[in-house]
TrEMBL record:
The active site is at E46 (proton acceptor), K115 (for glutaminase activity), C168 (nucleophile). CDD domains: GAT_Gln-NAD-synth, NAD_synthase. Residues 6-268 form the CN hydrolase domain. L-glutamine binds at Y121, K201. One of its GO terms (cellular component) is cytoplasm. This is Glutamine-dependent NAD(+) synthetase.
Length: 641
Protein backbone atom coordinates (compact mmCIF):
# COMPACT_ATOMS: atom_id res chain seq x y z
CA UNK A 1 0.00 0.00 0.00
CA UNK A 2 1.43 3.40 -0.93
CA UNK A 3 -0.88 5.55 1.29
CA UNK A 4 -1.13 8.21 -1.42
CA UNK A 5 2.62 8.75 -1.80
CA UNK A 6 4.18 9.12 -5.24
CA UNK A 7 7.94 8.63 -5.40
CA UNK A 8 9.55 11.27 -7.62
CA UNK A 9 13.08 12.30 -8.51
CA UNK A 10 15.01 15.26 -9.88
CA UNK A 11 18.10 14.18 -11.79
CA UNK A 12 21.12 16.30 -12.67
CA UNK A 13 23.32 14.20 -14.97
CA UNK A 14 26.79 15.04 -16.19
CA UNK A 15 26.66 16.69 -19.59
CA UNK A 16 28.91 17.41 -22.55
CA UNK A 17 27.77 20.31 -24.68
CA UNK A 18 26.55 19.07 -28.09
CA UNK A 19 27.51 15.42 -27.39
CA UNK A 20 24.08 13.80 -27.56
CA UNK A 21 25.33 10.21 -27.39
CA UNK A 22 27.27 10.86 -24.18
CA UNK A 23 24.39 12.78 -22.66
CA UNK A 24 21.89 10.05 -23.53
CA UNK A 25 24.10 7.47 -21.82
CA UNK A 26 24.35 9.60 -18.67
CA UNK A 27 20.58 10.08 -18.65
CA UNK A 28 20.09 6.31 -18.94
CA UNK A 29 22.32 5.74 -15.91
CA UNK A 30 20.22 8.08 -13.78
CA UNK A 31 16.97 6.49 -14.98
CA UNK A 32 18.26 3.03 -14.08
CA UNK A 33 19.32 4.22 -10.61
CA UNK A 34 15.94 5.84 -10.00
CA UNK A 35 13.98 2.87 -11.30
CA UNK A 36 15.91 0.59 -8.96
CA UNK A 37 14.82 2.76 -6.05
CA UNK A 38 11.15 2.61 -6.97
CA UNK A 39 10.87 6.09 -8.46
CA UNK A 40 7.69 6.53 -10.46
CA UNK A 41 8.46 9.82 -12.24
CA UNK A 42 11.87 11.41 -12.83
CA UNK A 43 12.63 14.84 -14.31
CA UNK A 44 15.83 15.96 -16.03
CA UNK A 45 17.15 19.46 -16.83
CA UNK A 46 16.14 21.66 -19.74
CA UNK A 47 17.67 20.59 -23.08
CA UNK A 48 19.58 17.84 -21.27
CA UNK A 49 20.05 15.66 -24.37
CA UNK A 50 22.01 18.37 -26.20
CA UNK A 51 23.10 20.57 -23.33
CA UNK A 52 21.53 23.98 -22.74
CA UNK A 53 24.52 26.08 -23.80
CA UNK A 54 24.85 24.99 -27.44
CA UNK A 55 24.12 28.52 -28.66
CA UNK A 56 23.98 28.84 -32.45
CA UNK A 57 24.70 25.12 -32.78
CA UNK A 58 20.94 24.69 -32.28
CA UNK A 59 20.66 25.74 -35.93
CA UNK A 60 22.72 22.73 -37.01
CA UNK A 61 20.71 19.88 -38.55
CA UNK A 62 23.23 17.34 -37.31
CA UNK A 63 22.69 18.37 -33.68
CA UNK A 64 18.92 18.05 -34.03
CA UNK A 65 19.17 14.63 -35.67
CA UNK A 66 21.62 13.41 -33.04
CA UNK A 67 19.29 14.66 -30.30
CA UNK A 68 16.50 12.52 -31.72
CA UNK A 69 18.88 9.55 -32.00
CA UNK A 70 19.81 10.09 -28.36
CA UNK A 71 16.14 9.97 -27.43
CA UNK A 72 15.69 6.75 -29.43
CA UNK A 73 18.67 5.28 -27.57
CA UNK A 74 17.07 6.12 -24.21
CA UNK A 75 13.70 4.72 -25.32
CA UNK A 76 15.24 1.44 -26.43
CA UNK A 77 17.32 0.95 -23.30
CA UNK A 78 14.52 1.77 -20.83
CA UNK A 79 11.76 -0.09 -22.66
CA UNK A 80 11.31 -2.65 -19.89
CA UNK A 81 11.01 -0.08 -17.09
CA UNK A 82 7.78 1.30 -15.66
CA UNK A 83 9.37 4.61 -14.67
CA UNK A 84 8.16 7.77 -16.42
CA UNK A 85 10.98 10.10 -17.52
CA UNK A 86 10.75 13.77 -18.52
CA UNK A 87 13.63 14.89 -20.74
CA UNK A 88 14.60 18.21 -22.31
CA UNK A 89 15.53 18.50 -25.99
CA UNK A 90 15.07 20.70 -29.08
CA UNK A 91 12.18 19.59 -31.28
CA UNK A 92 11.84 20.77 -34.88
CA UNK A 93 8.35 21.49 -36.22
CA UNK A 94 7.39 22.98 -39.58
CA UNK A 95 10.30 25.35 -39.88
CA UNK A 96 10.53 26.36 -36.22
CA UNK A 97 12.44 24.97 -33.27
CA UNK A 98 10.87 24.29 -29.90
CA UNK A 99 12.56 24.09 -26.51
CA UNK A 100 10.59 21.11 -25.30
CA UNK A 101 10.03 18.59 -22.54
CA UNK A 102 9.49 15.04 -23.80
CA UNK A 103 7.62 12.62 -21.54
CA UNK A 104 8.51 8.96 -22.13
CA UNK A 105 7.68 5.55 -20.68
CA UNK A 106 8.31 1.92 -21.69
CA UNK A 107 9.86 2.81 -25.04
CA UNK A 108 7.08 5.21 -26.01
CA UNK A 109 6.88 9.00 -26.21
CA UNK A 110 3.72 10.05 -24.37
CA UNK A 111 3.71 13.76 -25.08
CA UNK A 112 5.75 16.85 -25.91
CA UNK A 113 5.43 20.08 -23.90
CA UNK A 114 7.03 23.15 -25.54
CA UNK A 115 8.32 26.05 -23.46
CA UNK A 116 5.89 28.95 -23.25
CA UNK A 117 8.00 31.90 -22.07
CA UNK A 118 11.41 32.34 -23.71
CA UNK A 119 13.78 34.67 -21.83
CA UNK A 120 15.46 37.16 -24.13
CA UNK A 121 17.15 39.56 -21.75
CA UNK A 122 20.52 39.93 -20.02
CA UNK A 123 22.41 36.64 -20.48
CA UNK A 124 19.48 34.86 -22.16
CA UNK A 125 18.86 34.82 -25.93
CA UNK A 126 16.42 31.96 -26.39
CA UNK A 127 14.25 33.75 -28.96
CA UNK A 128 17.30 33.71 -31.23
CA UNK A 129 16.82 29.95 -31.62
CA UNK A 130 13.42 28.89 -30.31
CA UNK A 131 9.74 29.64 -30.84
CA UNK A 132 7.24 29.97 -27.98
CA UNK A 133 4.43 27.47 -27.52
CA UNK A 134 2.09 30.46 -27.83
CA UNK A 135 3.11 30.86 -31.48
CA UNK A 136 2.53 27.26 -32.51
CA UNK A 137 -0.87 26.20 -33.83
CA UNK A 138 -0.11 22.48 -34.14
CA UNK A 139 -1.19 20.08 -31.41
CA UNK A 140 0.97 17.14 -32.46
CA UNK A 141 4.49 16.48 -33.70
CA UNK A 142 6.30 13.60 -35.41
CA UNK A 143 9.11 12.30 -33.23
CA UNK A 144 10.93 8.96 -33.24
CA UNK A 145 8.56 7.64 -35.86
CA UNK A 146 5.47 8.45 -33.76
CA UNK A 147 2.80 11.13 -34.01
CA UNK A 148 2.92 12.62 -30.54
CA UNK A 149 0.40 14.90 -28.73
CA UNK A 150 1.96 18.30 -28.18
CA UNK A 151 0.96 21.37 -26.21
CA UNK A 152 1.56 23.39 -23.09
CA UNK A 153 -1.76 22.15 -21.63
CA UNK A 154 -0.94 18.43 -21.56
CA UNK A 155 -1.85 16.53 -18.40
CA UNK A 156 -0.37 13.09 -17.80
CA UNK A 157 -2.41 10.63 -15.75
CA UNK A 158 -1.04 7.63 -13.87
CA UNK A 159 -2.93 5.25 -11.62
CA UNK A 160 -1.74 7.32 -8.64
CA UNK A 161 -1.66 10.95 -9.76
CA UNK A 162 -1.91 13.53 -12.53
CA UNK A 163 1.07 15.70 -13.42
CA UNK A 164 2.00 18.58 -15.69
CA UNK A 165 5.23 20.07 -17.03
CA UNK A 166 6.65 23.55 -17.51
CA UNK A 167 10.13 24.72 -18.46
CA UNK A 168 12.42 27.10 -16.56
CA UNK A 169 11.31 30.69 -17.36
CA UNK A 170 7.69 29.59 -17.34
CA UNK A 171 7.88 29.60 -13.54
CA UNK A 172 9.10 33.23 -13.47
CA UNK A 173 6.09 34.50 -15.44
CA UNK A 174 3.33 36.44 -13.61
CA UNK A 175 0.92 33.60 -14.38
CA UNK A 176 2.99 30.43 -14.84
CA UNK A 177 1.59 27.58 -16.96
CA UNK A 178 1.82 25.44 -13.82
CA UNK A 179 -0.94 27.52 -12.20
CA UNK A 180 -3.36 26.60 -14.96
CA UNK A 181 -2.17 22.99 -14.99
CA UNK A 182 -2.81 22.74 -11.25
CA UNK A 183 -6.31 24.15 -11.60
CA UNK A 184 -6.97 21.64 -14.36
CA UNK A 185 -5.99 18.76 -12.10
CA UNK A 186 -2.20 18.43 -12.02
CA UNK A 187 -1.14 17.40 -8.51
CA UNK A 188 2.59 17.30 -9.25
CA UNK A 189 4.34 19.92 -11.38
CA UNK A 190 7.70 19.29 -13.02
CA UNK A 191 10.07 22.03 -14.14
CA UNK A 192 12.98 21.33 -16.49
CA UNK A 193 15.35 24.22 -16.01
CA UNK A 194 18.67 25.79 -16.93
CA UNK A 195 18.97 28.27 -14.09
CA UNK A 196 22.42 29.82 -13.79
CA UNK A 197 23.86 30.95 -10.50
CA UNK A 198 24.37 34.44 -9.11
CA UNK A 199 24.63 36.03 -5.68
CA UNK A 200 21.34 35.63 -3.82
CA UNK A 201 19.67 33.87 -6.73
CA UNK A 202 19.46 30.46 -5.08
CA UNK A 203 17.47 31.73 -2.11
CA UNK A 204 15.13 33.54 -4.48
CA UNK A 205 14.70 30.33 -6.49
CA UNK A 206 13.78 28.34 -3.41
CA UNK A 207 11.32 30.99 -2.32
CA UNK A 208 9.77 31.05 -5.79
CA UNK A 209 9.29 27.28 -5.96
CA UNK A 210 8.01 27.15 -2.39
CA UNK A 211 5.43 29.84 -3.07
CA UNK A 212 4.29 28.30 -6.35
CA UNK A 213 3.88 24.83 -4.85
CA UNK A 214 1.93 26.39 -1.96
CA UNK A 215 -0.32 28.50 -4.20
CA UNK A 216 -1.02 25.53 -6.44
CA UNK A 217 -1.38 23.15 -3.46
CA UNK A 218 0.87 20.81 -5.41
CA UNK A 219 4.11 18.92 -5.46
CA UNK A 220 6.85 20.69 -7.42
CA UNK A 221 9.93 18.93 -8.81
CA UNK A 222 12.67 21.19 -10.16
CA UNK A 223 15.71 19.96 -12.10
CA UNK A 224 18.33 22.38 -13.40
CA UNK A 225 21.48 21.65 -15.39
CA UNK A 226 24.87 21.53 -13.72
CA UNK A 227 28.49 20.55 -14.29
CA UNK A 228 29.50 20.18 -17.92
CA UNK A 229 27.48 23.08 -19.30
CA UNK A 230 29.58 25.83 -20.84
CA UNK A 231 30.99 28.36 -18.38
CA UNK A 232 31.87 30.92 -21.05
CA UNK A 233 29.76 33.54 -19.29
CA UNK A 234 27.68 31.81 -16.59
CA UNK A 235 27.85 28.86 -14.19
CA UNK A 236 25.16 26.27 -13.51
CA UNK A 237 25.06 24.72 -10.03
CA UNK A 238 22.78 21.77 -10.84
CA UNK A 239 19.78 22.29 -8.57
CA UNK A 240 17.52 19.34 -7.80
CA UNK A 241 14.64 20.40 -5.54
CA UNK A 242 11.43 18.68 -4.48
CA UNK A 243 8.66 20.63 -2.72
CA UNK A 244 5.21 19.75 -1.44
CA UNK A 245 2.70 22.51 -0.75
CA UNK A 246 5.42 25.01 0.13
CA UNK A 247 7.62 22.63 2.12
CA UNK A 248 11.04 21.48 0.92
CA UNK A 249 11.23 17.68 0.97
CA UNK A 250 14.62 17.10 -0.62
CA UNK A 251 17.51 18.95 -2.25
CA UNK A 252 20.73 17.79 -3.84
CA UNK A 253 24.29 19.07 -3.41
CA UNK A 254 24.93 22.18 -5.47
CA UNK A 255 28.06 22.53 -7.61
CA UNK A 256 28.69 18.80 -7.68
CA UNK A 257 31.00 17.50 -10.42
CA UNK A 258 29.13 14.19 -10.59
CA UNK A 259 25.65 13.21 -11.70
CA UNK A 260 23.02 13.22 -8.95
CA UNK A 261 19.50 11.97 -8.33
CA UNK A 262 17.48 13.42 -5.46
CA UNK A 263 14.42 11.40 -4.44
CA UNK A 264 11.40 11.94 -2.22
CA UNK A 265 7.74 11.04 -1.91
CA UNK A 266 4.94 13.51 -2.57
CA UNK A 267 1.74 12.92 -0.63
CA UNK A 268 -0.95 13.44 -3.27
CA UNK A 269 -3.62 12.23 -0.86
CA UNK A 270 -2.78 15.15 1.42
CA UNK A 271 -2.79 17.54 -1.54
CA UNK A 272 -6.24 16.37 -2.56
CA UNK A 273 -7.52 16.93 0.97
CA UNK A 274 -6.03 20.43 1.06
CA UNK A 275 -7.62 21.30 -2.27
CA UNK A 276 -11.03 20.07 -1.18
CA UNK A 277 -10.85 22.09 2.03
CA UNK A 278 -9.55 25.24 0.33
CA UNK A 279 -12.66 26.67 -1.33
CA UNK A 280 -10.59 29.43 -2.97
CA UNK A 281 -8.81 26.81 -5.07
CA UNK A 282 -12.13 25.57 -6.47
CA UNK A 283 -13.29 29.14 -7.08
CA UNK A 284 -10.14 29.86 -9.09
CA UNK A 285 -10.80 26.77 -11.18
CA UNK A 286 -14.28 27.97 -12.03
CA UNK A 287 -13.21 31.53 -12.81
CA UNK A 288 -9.85 31.06 -14.49
CA UNK A 289 -9.90 27.84 -16.52
CA UNK A 290 -11.73 27.88 -19.82
CA UNK A 291 -10.01 25.51 -22.26
CA UNK A 292 -10.08 21.79 -21.60
CA UNK A 293 -6.64 20.21 -21.15
CA UNK A 294 -5.36 17.27 -23.18
CA UNK A 295 -5.18 14.22 -20.92
CA UNK A 296 -2.70 11.45 -21.64
CA UNK A 297 -2.88 8.15 -19.76
CA UNK A 298 0.28 6.27 -18.85
CA UNK A 299 0.83 2.59 -18.23
CA UNK A 300 2.30 3.06 -14.78
CA UNK A 301 0.89 0.77 -12.11
CA UNK A 302 2.63 1.00 -8.74
CA UNK A 303 2.99 -2.56 -7.47
CA UNK A 304 5.98 -2.02 -5.15
CA UNK A 305 5.88 -1.66 -1.40
CA UNK A 306 6.43 1.92 -0.28
CA UNK A 307 9.94 2.62 0.98
CA UNK A 308 9.82 6.11 2.44
CA UNK A 309 12.92 8.26 2.07
CA UNK A 310 11.36 11.45 3.44
CA UNK A 311 11.32 12.06 7.16
CA UNK A 312 8.60 13.39 9.44
CA UNK A 313 8.97 15.49 12.56
CA UNK A 314 7.88 13.52 15.64
CA UNK A 315 6.66 16.84 17.07
CA UNK A 316 4.96 18.53 14.10
CA UNK A 317 3.84 21.50 16.20
CA UNK A 318 7.36 22.21 17.47
CA UNK A 319 9.94 23.55 14.98
CA UNK A 320 13.67 23.20 15.52
CA UNK A 321 16.47 25.70 16.08
CA UNK A 322 15.89 29.41 15.64
CA UNK A 323 12.45 28.70 14.19
CA UNK A 324 11.34 27.55 17.65
CA UNK A 325 12.10 30.96 19.15
CA UNK A 326 10.18 32.63 16.33
CA UNK A 327 7.24 30.26 16.80
CA UNK A 328 7.10 30.82 20.55
CA UNK A 329 7.23 34.59 20.18
CA UNK A 330 4.45 34.58 17.59
CA UNK A 331 2.17 32.22 19.51
CA UNK A 332 2.67 34.11 22.77
CA UNK A 333 1.95 37.42 21.02
CA UNK A 334 -1.29 36.06 19.56
CA UNK A 335 -2.39 34.85 22.99
CA UNK A 336 -1.61 38.21 24.56
CA UNK A 337 -3.38 40.21 21.85
CA UNK A 338 -6.45 38.00 22.03
CA UNK A 339 -6.75 38.36 25.79
CA UNK A 340 -6.07 42.11 25.69
CA UNK A 341 -8.93 42.72 23.25
CA UNK A 342 -11.34 40.67 25.36
CA UNK A 343 -10.36 42.44 28.60
CA UNK A 344 -10.68 45.89 27.03
CA UNK A 345 -13.98 45.07 25.34
CA UNK A 346 -15.60 43.67 28.50
CA UNK A 347 -14.14 46.43 30.70
CA UNK A 348 -13.06 43.72 33.12
CA UNK A 349 -11.25 44.96 36.17
CA UNK A 350 -9.40 41.71 36.89
CA UNK A 351 -8.28 38.41 35.40
CA UNK A 352 -8.94 35.43 37.66
CA UNK A 353 -6.94 32.28 37.08
CA UNK A 354 -6.53 29.02 38.95
CA UNK A 355 -2.85 28.22 39.51
CA UNK A 356 -2.00 24.56 40.04
CA UNK A 357 1.76 24.62 39.59
CA UNK A 358 1.37 22.76 36.31
CA UNK A 359 2.31 23.74 32.76
CA UNK A 360 -1.04 24.89 31.38
CA UNK A 361 -2.00 27.23 34.21
CA UNK A 362 1.56 28.56 34.26
CA UNK A 363 1.40 29.47 30.58
CA UNK A 364 -2.00 31.11 31.03
CA UNK A 365 -0.64 33.14 33.96
CA UNK A 366 2.35 34.28 31.90
CA UNK A 367 -0.04 35.39 29.15
CA UNK A 368 -2.03 37.39 31.71
CA UNK A 369 1.10 39.05 33.08
CA UNK A 370 2.34 40.07 29.64
CA UNK A 371 -1.13 41.32 28.69
CA UNK A 372 -1.45 43.50 31.78
CA UNK A 373 2.06 44.86 31.25
CA UNK A 374 1.30 45.81 27.63
CA UNK A 375 -1.97 47.44 28.63
CA UNK A 376 -0.18 49.40 31.35
CA UNK A 377 -2.32 47.81 34.07
CA UNK A 378 -1.13 46.80 37.53
CA UNK A 379 -0.32 43.11 37.93
CA UNK A 380 -2.32 43.24 41.15
CA UNK A 381 -5.36 43.04 38.88
CA UNK A 382 -4.40 39.44 38.14
CA UNK A 383 -5.93 37.24 40.83
CA UNK A 384 -4.06 33.96 41.04
CA UNK A 385 -5.96 31.38 43.05
CA UNK A 386 -4.35 28.21 44.33
CA UNK A 387 -6.89 25.64 45.50
CA UNK A 388 -5.19 22.73 47.26
CA UNK A 389 -7.09 19.47 47.13
CA UNK A 390 -6.69 15.82 48.01
CA UNK A 391 -3.98 15.21 45.37
CA UNK A 392 -1.99 18.43 45.62
CA UNK A 393 1.70 17.77 46.24
CA UNK A 394 4.20 19.99 48.03
CA UNK A 395 6.14 20.49 44.79
CA UNK A 396 3.26 21.86 42.74
CA UNK A 397 1.83 23.88 45.65
CA UNK A 398 5.21 25.49 46.37
CA UNK A 399 5.79 26.26 42.70
CA UNK A 400 2.35 27.85 42.40
CA UNK A 401 2.91 30.13 45.41
CA UNK A 402 6.49 31.01 44.46
CA UNK A 403 5.53 31.81 40.88
CA UNK A 404 2.65 34.09 41.82
CA UNK A 405 4.75 35.92 44.40
CA UNK A 406 7.69 36.39 42.03
CA UNK A 407 5.39 37.76 39.31
CA UNK A 408 3.74 40.22 41.69
CA UNK A 409 0.13 39.16 41.15
CA UNK A 410 -2.59 39.01 43.80
CA UNK A 411 -2.40 35.65 45.57
CA UNK A 412 -5.42 33.90 47.04
CA UNK A 413 -5.56 30.43 48.55
CA UNK A 414 -8.82 28.52 48.96
CA UNK A 415 -8.68 24.88 50.01
CA UNK A 416 -11.35 22.73 48.37
CA UNK A 417 -11.08 19.82 50.80
CA UNK A 418 -13.80 20.74 53.29
CA UNK A 419 -16.21 21.90 50.59
CA UNK A 420 -15.73 18.64 48.67
CA UNK A 421 -16.13 16.51 51.80
CA UNK A 422 -19.39 18.31 52.58
CA UNK A 423 -20.50 17.85 48.97
CA UNK A 424 -19.78 14.12 49.14
CA UNK A 425 -21.91 13.91 52.29
CA UNK A 426 -24.70 15.83 50.56
CA UNK A 427 -24.83 13.42 47.63
CA UNK A 428 -24.06 10.35 49.74
CA UNK A 429 -20.71 9.53 48.13
CA UNK A 430 -17.95 7.71 50.00
CA UNK A 431 -14.91 10.01 50.17
CA UNK A 432 -12.65 6.95 50.07
CA UNK A 433 -13.95 5.86 46.66
CA UNK A 434 -11.64 7.57 44.19
CA UNK A 435 -13.86 7.33 41.14
CA UNK A 436 -15.00 9.82 38.48
CA UNK A 437 -17.37 11.47 40.99
CA UNK A 438 -14.46 12.01 43.37
CA UNK A 439 -12.32 13.57 40.64
CA UNK A 440 -14.91 15.68 38.86
CA UNK A 441 -16.36 17.12 42.07
CA UNK A 442 -12.97 18.68 42.80
CA UNK A 443 -12.67 20.16 39.32
CA UNK A 444 -16.16 21.65 39.48
CA UNK A 445 -15.59 23.03 42.96
CA UNK A 446 -12.50 24.83 41.71
CA UNK A 447 -14.39 26.29 38.76
CA UNK A 448 -17.17 27.51 41.05
CA UNK A 449 -14.62 29.26 43.26
CA UNK A 450 -13.00 30.97 40.29
CA UNK A 451 -16.31 32.10 38.82
CA UNK A 452 -17.46 33.54 42.13
CA UNK A 453 -14.16 35.36 42.72
CA UNK A 454 -14.48 36.80 39.21
CA UNK A 455 -17.91 38.13 40.19
CA UNK A 456 -16.40 39.56 43.38
CA UNK A 457 -13.65 41.38 41.51
CA UNK A 458 -15.53 42.36 38.34
CA UNK A 459 -13.23 40.09 36.43
CA UNK A 460 -12.96 37.29 33.91
CA UNK A 461 -11.99 33.67 34.54
CA UNK A 462 -9.08 32.79 32.25
CA UNK A 463 -9.16 29.21 30.96
CA UNK A 464 -6.02 27.10 31.01
CA UNK A 465 -6.91 23.96 29.01
CA UNK A 466 -4.86 23.25 25.88
CA UNK A 467 -5.56 21.85 22.41
CA UNK A 468 -4.39 18.32 23.21
CA UNK A 469 -6.67 18.08 26.23
CA UNK A 470 -9.60 19.33 24.16
CA UNK A 471 -8.92 16.72 21.48
CA UNK A 472 -8.96 13.94 24.06
CA UNK A 473 -11.69 15.45 26.21
CA UNK A 474 -9.25 15.34 29.13
CA UNK A 475 -11.20 17.88 31.16
CA UNK A 476 -14.19 17.83 33.48
CA UNK A 477 -17.36 18.96 31.75
CA UNK A 478 -18.37 22.30 33.28
CA UNK A 479 -15.31 22.07 35.47
CA UNK A 480 -11.88 23.05 34.16
CA UNK A 481 -13.53 22.72 30.75
CA UNK A 482 -15.31 26.05 31.37
CA UNK A 483 -14.00 29.62 31.58
CA UNK A 484 -14.70 33.08 30.18
CA UNK A 485 -11.75 33.09 27.76
CA UNK A 486 -9.37 30.19 27.08
CA UNK A 487 -5.96 31.51 26.09
CA UNK A 488 -4.43 28.04 25.54
CA UNK A 489 -7.32 26.58 23.55
CA UNK A 490 -5.35 26.02 20.35
CA UNK A 491 -1.89 25.44 21.82
CA UNK A 492 -0.87 21.74 21.73
CA UNK A 493 0.63 20.17 24.82
CA UNK A 494 3.99 19.48 23.14
CA UNK A 495 4.39 23.21 22.49
CA UNK A 496 3.21 24.41 25.92
CA UNK A 497 6.41 23.46 27.75
CA UNK A 498 8.53 25.15 25.07
CA UNK A 499 6.48 28.32 25.43
CA UNK A 500 6.94 28.34 29.21
CA UNK A 501 10.65 27.69 28.82
CA UNK A 502 10.93 30.42 26.17
CA UNK A 503 9.28 33.00 28.45
CA UNK A 504 11.51 31.87 31.33
CA UNK A 505 14.66 32.38 29.28
CA UNK A 506 13.68 35.62 27.55
CA UNK A 507 11.50 37.63 29.91
CA UNK A 508 12.03 36.61 33.55
CA UNK A 509 14.26 37.34 36.53
CA UNK A 510 16.29 34.59 38.19
CA UNK A 511 13.67 33.72 40.82
CA UNK A 512 10.82 33.36 38.36
CA UNK A 513 13.04 31.52 35.89
CA UNK A 514 14.02 28.86 38.43
CA UNK A 515 10.39 28.20 39.34
CA UNK A 516 9.30 28.07 35.70
CA UNK A 517 12.02 25.60 34.76
CA UNK A 518 11.03 23.34 37.66
CA UNK A 519 7.42 23.46 36.47
CA UNK A 520 8.61 22.42 33.00
CA UNK A 521 10.22 19.35 34.59
CA UNK A 522 7.16 18.40 36.68
CA UNK A 523 5.18 15.34 35.50
CA UNK A 524 1.81 16.23 33.95
CA UNK A 525 -1.04 15.41 36.35
CA UNK A 526 -4.53 16.66 37.29
CA UNK A 527 -3.64 15.85 40.94
CA UNK A 528 -7.13 14.66 41.82
CA UNK A 529 -5.98 11.45 43.51
CA UNK A 530 -3.98 11.61 46.79
CA UNK A 531 -0.18 11.47 46.51
CA UNK A 532 1.76 8.33 47.40
CA UNK A 533 3.25 7.71 50.83
CA UNK A 534 6.33 9.75 49.85
CA UNK A 535 4.27 12.76 48.78
CA UNK A 536 4.92 12.22 45.08
CA UNK A 537 2.39 12.58 42.29
CA UNK A 538 0.54 9.29 41.89
CA UNK A 539 -1.80 10.22 39.03
CA UNK A 540 0.38 10.65 35.91
CA UNK A 541 -1.74 11.78 32.95
CA UNK A 542 0.40 10.14 30.26
CA UNK A 543 0.18 6.78 32.02
CA UNK A 544 -3.60 7.01 31.83
CA UNK A 545 -4.32 8.57 28.46
CA UNK A 546 -1.06 8.03 26.59
CA UNK A 547 2.05 10.04 25.63
CA UNK A 548 1.14 13.53 24.48
CA UNK A 549 3.83 13.44 21.79
CA UNK A 550 1.95 10.55 20.18
CA UNK A 551 -1.44 12.19 20.57
CA UNK A 552 -0.20 15.47 19.11
CA UNK A 553 1.25 13.53 16.17
CA UNK A 554 -2.11 11.77 15.69
CA UNK A 555 -3.97 15.06 16.06
CA UNK A 556 -1.86 16.85 13.48
CA UNK A 557 -2.29 14.24 10.77
CA UNK A 558 -5.93 13.56 11.62
CA UNK A 559 -7.07 17.20 11.56
CA UNK A 560 -4.46 19.06 9.53
CA UNK A 561 -4.12 16.42 6.81
CA UNK A 562 -7.35 14.42 7.07
CA UNK A 563 -5.49 11.09 7.13
CA UNK A 564 -7.19 7.79 7.93
CA UNK A 565 -6.01 5.78 10.97
CA UNK A 566 -4.01 3.24 8.93
CA UNK A 567 -1.94 6.00 7.33
CA UNK A 568 -1.41 7.79 10.65
CA UNK A 569 -0.27 4.48 12.14
CA UNK A 570 2.12 3.90 9.23
CA UNK A 571 3.66 7.36 9.63
CA UNK A 572 3.88 7.05 13.43
CA UNK A 573 5.58 3.65 13.19
CA UNK A 574 8.04 5.12 10.67
CA UNK A 575 8.69 8.29 12.69
CA UNK A 576 8.84 6.84 16.23
CA UNK A 577 10.77 3.68 15.31
CA UNK A 578 12.99 2.78 18.25
CA UNK A 579 10.92 4.92 20.63
CA UNK A 580 7.56 3.12 20.64
CA UNK A 581 6.76 -0.32 19.30
CA UNK A 582 3.83 -0.81 16.93
CA UNK A 583 1.56 -2.31 19.59
CA UNK A 584 2.02 0.74 21.80
CA UNK A 585 1.29 3.09 18.90
CA UNK A 586 -1.80 1.10 17.97
CA UNK A 587 -3.06 1.12 21.57
CA UNK A 588 -2.86 4.90 21.92
CA UNK A 589 -4.16 5.53 18.39
CA UNK A 590 -7.23 3.55 19.37
CA UNK A 591 -7.56 5.69 22.49
CA UNK A 592 -7.22 8.84 20.41
CA UNK A 593 -9.91 7.83 17.91
CA UNK A 594 -12.32 6.70 20.62
CA UNK A 595 -11.92 9.76 22.81
CA UNK A 596 -11.84 12.26 19.96
CA UNK A 597 -15.31 11.17 18.90
CA UNK A 598 -16.99 10.52 22.23
CA UNK A 599 -15.70 13.74 23.82
CA UNK A 600 -16.93 16.08 21.08
CA UNK A 601 -19.82 17.21 23.31
CA UNK A 602 -17.30 19.09 25.45
CA UNK A 603 -15.93 20.94 22.43
CA UNK A 604 -19.43 21.82 21.21
CA UNK A 605 -19.76 24.34 24.06
CA UNK A 606 -16.18 25.54 24.15
CA UNK A 607 -15.42 29.02 25.54
CA UNK A 608 -13.91 31.62 23.21
CA UNK A 609 -10.16 31.52 22.71
CA UNK A 610 -7.61 32.64 20.10
CA UNK A 611 -6.54 30.43 17.20
CA UNK A 612 -2.75 30.45 17.12
CA UNK A 613 -1.81 27.85 14.50
CA UNK A 614 -3.17 25.79 11.64
CA UNK A 615 -5.40 23.69 13.91
CA UNK A 616 -8.23 24.75 16.17
CA UNK A 617 -11.16 22.82 17.64
CA UNK A 618 -13.47 25.79 18.05
CA UNK A 619 -17.05 24.80 17.14
CA UNK A 620 -17.52 28.31 15.77
CA UNK A 621 -14.53 28.13 13.46
CA UNK A 622 -12.29 25.29 12.35
CA UNK A 623 -14.08 22.19 13.64
CA UNK A 624 -17.83 21.70 13.35
CA UNK A 625 -18.62 18.12 14.22
CA UNK A 626 -21.83 16.61 15.60
CA UNK A 627 -21.50 15.42 19.18
CA UNK A 628 -23.19 12.12 18.32
CA UNK A 629 -21.04 11.13 15.30
CA UNK A 630 -20.04 7.46 15.23
CA UNK A 631 -16.40 6.45 15.60
CA UNK A 632 -17.08 2.90 14.40
CA UNK A 633 -15.31 3.16 11.01
CA UNK A 634 -12.18 4.68 12.50
CA UNK A 635 -11.98 2.20 15.36
CA UNK A 636 -12.62 -0.72 13.03
CA UNK A 637 -9.69 0.34 10.87
CA UNK A 638 -7.42 0.63 13.92
CA UNK A 639 -8.45 -2.83 15.10
CA UNK A 640 -7.54 -4.24 11.69
CA UNK A 641 -3.96 -2.96 11.81
Amino acid sequence: MNYGYVKVAAAVPRVKVADCKFNASEIEKEIIIADGKGVQIIAFPELCITGYTCGDLFAQQLLLEEAEMGLIQILNNTRQMDIISILGMPVALNGVLLNAAVVIQKGRVLGVVPKTYLPNYKEFYEKRWFTSACDVAENSVRLCGQIIPMGRDLLFETADTTFGVEICEDLWAPIPPSSTLALQGAEILFNLSADNEGIGKHNYLRSLISQQSARCIAGYVFSSCGFGESTTDVVFAGNGLIYENGTLLAANERFSFEGQVVISEIDVEHLRTERRVNTTFAACHANCVSALPVRISTEYVNSRDLNLTRTFEPHPFVPQGIALDERCEEVFSIQVSGLAQRLVHTKAKSAVIGISGGLDSTLALLVCVKTFDKLGWSRQGIVGVTMPGFGTTDRTYTNAIDLMNSLGVTVREVSIKEACIQHFKDIDHDVHVHDVVYENAQARERTQILMDIANQTWGMVIGTGDLSELALGWATYNGDHMSMYGVNASVPKTLVKHLVKWVAEHDMDDASRATLLDIVDTPISPELIPADENGNIQQITEDLVGPYELHDFFLYYFLRCGFRPSKIFFLAAHTFKGMYDEETIKKWLQTFCRRFFNQQFKRSCLPDGPKVGSISLSPRGDWRMPSDASSEMWLREVEGL
